[in-house]
Amino acid sequence: MHNQDNWVGLKWVVMLVRVPDVSNKTTREVQFYLTSLNCAPCNLGQVIRLHWGVGNELH
Fold first, then answer.
1. pTM, full prediction
2. What is the DSSP letter of 9?
């Protein structure tokens, strides 16, 4: 990563690939998350799903 001084506190860069099937049409979505959370990688999926849940309730 360039300019590492700009990323002080960064703990994880997460790449997530989603393959939703909506109305019999499959797409592929790639999302990136940057976080300073100090947690195990296996817990990051739970954190991301909780984040989606908040957004889904608002729409």
1. 0.63
2. T
